[in-house]
Automatic annotation (TrEMBL):
Its cofactor is Mg(2+). NCBIfam families: GGDEF. SMART domains: GGDEF. This is diguanylate cyclase. It catalyses: 2 GTP = 3',3'-c-di-GMP + 2 diphosphate.
């Protein structure tokens, strides 16, 4: 037994039962008339009985007739013993529960400092119930509160992690099976996830990124190998062509010299020989010239083949050039994609970081007003929950397009992540800021969304601030975010300027 109150009560009950048993054994001797001492004991017990069960005097036995009294007492004794056993069991159970609660509280980090003594007493079974029980309940409440706030913190962190992962997925631009897997992960991230699911998605994303990079690397390697082989072939062709051309050149020179020599000889013979001899000589020279002409013809054919080869080579080089151009185009598209949000096709966070850096430097240099506004769609979770994520995606696309259309050429809008956007407005003074921001808010509100045949109005909240003296990008963003938070808490569908 642990508790002093209960202990005392049980002890008292045990003594009453023992005494009742002795009275009962006196009364249940029918041959012997109960002596005065037994009767007195019985009567004192009756009054003790009345004390114990206050207000139930009607149910107390009368001491008048001993057999009756004995029967009554036996009945009450049985009841008392049952109650005693029940009480003892309850007490034991209670003690066990208390010990368990005490040890749990001792393990919990919400265990207040001054509870240590109580918990030791409870674990040793030395404390009495009432006061300590309330105290214990109090600690229990504190422990629960702390658990609850930890749970909320945990949920907020999970939400943040999930949004960040969504952003990362959107910034990954792979092709093939990896791209399909990434799309699946993206839609999974839009659902509420348990921490272990989130962790396993993180691992899957890492795997996919590695897989995607391997795939890209393999493609690049293949391309480079092909270029290398093609260049090798082109080089060999060029070498052959060069040497052929050289020998062709030599042959032509040789033939030229030969023909010139022959012509010279004809000329000399023309003057020194008589007609008959001249004819014979001319005939020899003519044969020689004919021979040269035949050789020249062959040279011409070789030249034609060479020309054909050069045309092929040219084609090969032009194919190569085209392929390289295509690859370059792919690379530059991929590079562009790094800064463009896949869903809404406006700039993503990386794009925003880049632009913000440029605008910030310009602001430092020129000191012309630069406004940064954070926008967040109101109750967007409800849209997803009620009409599905595809409807949510559609809304995001349309809102992004509307925001972009409502801004000037020189302004900038990016999807910051999830259902949040960032807008940069330059060269707008504080006094003229309200108008374009209100225009953004109203234009989004006026988009005639229709989901599941229902007209739906979607609103946005905005927090805006101008860059101020001493600001860093981070501090200005933080201020805009705080302003957005206030706009949300003030009822949404509004702008708060800081
Ligand atoms: N369909 C879709 N939903 C997204 C995307 N990115 C984030 N979300 C969802 O946007 C919702 C944001 O919900 P909360 O942060 O609770 O905010 P909210 O419901 O807009 O409420 P308030 O901002 O407080 O007005 C979550 O349900 C996200 O899953 C996306 O790319 N597509």
């Amino acid at each position: 037994m642990n508790n002093l109150d209960d202990k005392l009560m049980l002890q008292e009950l045990t003594s009453v039962i023992t005494r009742l048993e002795s009275v009962l054994s006196g009364l249940s001797q029918p041959a012997i008339d109960p002596d005065e001492q037994t009767k007195a004991a019985a009567l004192s017990l009756v009054s003790q009985w009345q004390k114990l069960f206050n207000g139930k005097s009607g149910a107390t036995p009368s001491a008048a007739t001993s057999p009756q009294l004995a029967a009554e007492l036996e009945l009450q004794l049985l009841r008392l013993q049952n109650s005693h056993d029940k009480l003892a069991r309850l007490q034991q159970l209670g003690s066990q529960k208390l010990r368990l609660a005490a040890s749990l509280l001792q393990q919990s980090d919400a265990n207040p400092a001054d509870s240590a003594e109580l918990l030791t007493l409870l674990s040793n079974g030395e404390a009495s119930h009432q006061g300590q029980l309330w105290q214990l309940l109090d600690y229990y409440q504190q422990a629960l509160d702390s658990l609850l706030s930890k749970k909320q913190q945990c949920e907020a962190q999970q939400h943040q992690l999930s949004s960040r992962l969504q952003q990362l997925v959107e910034e990954l631009h792979f092709s093939g099976p990896v791209a399909i897997e990434l799309t699946k992960i993206r839609s999974q991230l839009l659902q509420p996830l348990a921490p272990e699911e989130l962790a396993s998605l993180c691992l899957r994303l890492i795997d996919l990124t590695i897989e995607g990079l391997r795939f890209e690397r393999k493609n690049t390697k293949q391309f480079l190998t092909k270029i290398h082989t093609d260049l090798d072939a082109a080089h060999q062709y060029a070498a052959i062509t060069l040497s052929e051309e050289q020998s062709l050149c030599d042959a032509r020179a040789h033939h030229g010299q030969h023909i010139a020599g022959e012509l010279r000889a004809i000329g000399e013979h023309l003057f020194s020989q008589d007609n008959e001899q001249l004819k014979a000589d001319i005939a020899v020279r003519m044969r020689s010239i004919n021979h040269i002409l035949v050789q020249n013809e062959r040279l011409h054919e070789r030249e034609q083949t060479l020309l054909q080869r050069m045309v092929e080579m040219e084609q090969q080089i032009s194919d190569l050039k085209q392929e390289a151009g295509h690859f370059q185009q792919q690379l530059s598209t991929q590079n562009d994609k790094l800064f463009v949000d896949g869903l809404t096709k406006i700039y993503n966070r990386a794009g925003m970081d880049q632009r913000l850096e440029v605008e910030y430097r310009q602001w430092l240099r020129d000191d012309k007003p630069l406004c940064i506004a954070m926008l967040d769609i109101d109750y967007f979770k409800d849209i997803n929950d009620k009409y599905g994520h595809l409807a949510g995606d559609k809304a995001l696309r349309l809102i992004a397009k509307t925001l972009q259309k409502s801004l000037r050429e020189s302004d900038f809008v990016a999807r910051f992540g999830g259902e949040e956007f960032v807008v940069l407005l330059n060269n707008v003074s504080q006094d003229n800021l309200e108008k374009p921001l209100q225009k953004l808010r109203e234009q989004v509100k006026n988009i005639p969304f229709r989901f599941k045949e229902e007209p739906v109005t979607i609103t946005i909240s905005l927090g805006a601030t101008l860059f101020k003296q001493g600001d860093s990008i981070h501090s200005a963003l933080e201020r805009a975010d705080q302003a957005l938070y206030r706009a949300k808490h003030a009822g949404r569908d509004q702008i708060v300027m800081d």
